Amino acid sequence: MAACNGSVEDAPSGAAPVAHSAQNLAQARPIGDPLAEYQWHLKNTGQSAFSMGAGLPGMDLNVDTAFGAGWTGKDVKVLVLDDGLEIAHEDLAANVAPDMLYNFDPAAPDAHDPTPVQENGHGTSVAGIIGAIADNQVGGRGVAPGVRLGGARFIGYTGSRNSWARDTFDAFGGAPFSSRADVLNGSFGRVTIYPLELVPGQSVESLAAEGLEQLRKGKGAVFVKSAGNSYASVAGSASYCAHAVAAGVTCSNANSDPLGTVPQAVIVGAINARGVRSSYSSAGSNLLVSAFGGEYGGVSGPTIVTSDLMGCVRGYAKRAVNNRPANDFDKPDSATGKAFNPTCNYTSLFNGTSSAAPMVSAVVALMLEANANLTWRDIRYILMKTARIVDADRKPGEVTLPSGEKYAPQPAWTRNAAGLWFDNFYGFGLVDSARAVALAKTYTNHLTGRMTSTGDALRYAAAQDEPGVVVPVGSASGVDTSLVYSSNNIGRIEAVQLTLSLRDASMRDLAVELISPAGTRSVLSNAYNAFWNESRDVSALTLASNAFNEESAKGVWKVRLIDTNSRKGMLPTRLASAQLRVYGR
């Protein structure tokens, strides 16, 4: 699994100089947390945060009210599942919980010390966003500076102490160190050009996520996960994505990672300092909310100031020496670096949905401090209800199929039948900590236990000797398969999963859409994606959507498959089976 921060890229030659000199900036630093004023995600005043581009004032997490009221996430336990955590870091050590540490790397000398080696500073940067100590006269501050931080080296190494399945269960509450967590942050994901399988209720990812519901004495731990950074490139290559860029859609959909399709996950997209989707942030119908990831520094605009592995020969600082970063703050030999980051313990270039997810994890910690009785389902509901719409004027793209028909492959903001606005770019919008904490504090309508599920009621399966549902090639209307749910037991939807098996599927050309009984359309997997485009069978392709939340499950659902026909001479895709699982109350 890969970490979900965007790559640090060099600033283009000829870029304008940083607006403030190192001397002037140094004179302006506050005593409590010297780098806090550059953490625009906490309070955006339009500062450049050592980059060459300014942010939009007010485009931040709206934490002033929570901080003013004294909320810090005090004693809420947040576990960072990542490439490790430097437990002795000067801005983290006092918040580290010794009983929430583990190292899955079989080469690690101490299984209970997740401190990484060399360049593996990702998890330490994530932890700084969540819980860097406030008012200690070093570094910046976390969104929830009162939390107890746990850490596990769960990615970024080779080999395994046990099996992958065992490690996954241990990380997700099945071991003593993880069972204590209130919140788990997963700033990682899987990117592939082939569809990955997930069988709900059977696959490891599904079972591990279900186990989280038993933590916190049955109230459930909250799993926050990054959406991914493959909107315009996959595995560092833009070659897979030229068709997606031309169509104005995400290249790798956030739904392509099986762990991102479980209903227990809070999937988070990234927004930049100007209030629009970060250029790399993967879109998908499984997003719940968004937070800040920034861009790439330099002229592209601010990134996130946070902790790095200590010292100039480790972490992002070591990488910076070789790769020339976009911001002078991260150059140990620059005037700005010497003035603000002389020991290289911090970075101004952390970005990606890896940055956005820990911001949401920290906001959840603030909510749990305000109301410790919240269940994992309550948290999802409150985040959804209190998010604020950004980029409200965004318009959906449109393509012309070879047949001449017009088709909108990825909708923009859409209001569902319950009155909620949703966009695959942003989920329900930007997380708003003040509103989330305010609602959490007064919230009493607790959603306890497991979500009610439609189970096997909504299912289509072709007989073995039948061709299945043939998807017409090049038709903008595609083909619908209707699934009828006649029960009244789910009056308010909380999540939806659709599992498909396909024959002769040309996945790059295929769009998977779902239309609710109320008529809300959600694109679960867009065409023009990064998948291969040759006829192959696909089993247990599971996709999720939050676009229908709070609608009723009763009525006729339509699974719509559309083949945009960019290939030639291949067989049509056929639907062999479809199972829709609607969860709610």
Automatic annotation (TrEMBL):
In terms of InterPro entries, this protein maps to: Galactose-bd-like_sf, Kexin/furin, P_dom, Peptidase_S8/S53_dom, Peptidase_S8/S53_dom_sf, Peptidase_S8_His-AS, Peptidase_S8_Ser-AS, Peptidase_S8_subtilisin-rel
Which region ranges are annotated with the description Disordered? Answer: 1-21
One GO location term (cellular component): cytoplasm
Q: Which UniProt keywords apply?
A: Calcium, Hydrolase, Protease, Serine protease, Signal
Keyword Transferase among record annotations: no
Question: Which residues constitute the catalytic centre?
Answer: 82 (charge relay system), 122 (charge relay system), 354 (charge relay system)
Q: Where is the P/Homo B domain?
A: 454-585
Top-rank taxon? Bacteria
The record's family statement is: Belongs to the peptidase S8 family. Furin subfamily.
- Which protein, by its recorded name, is this? P/Homo B domain-containing protein
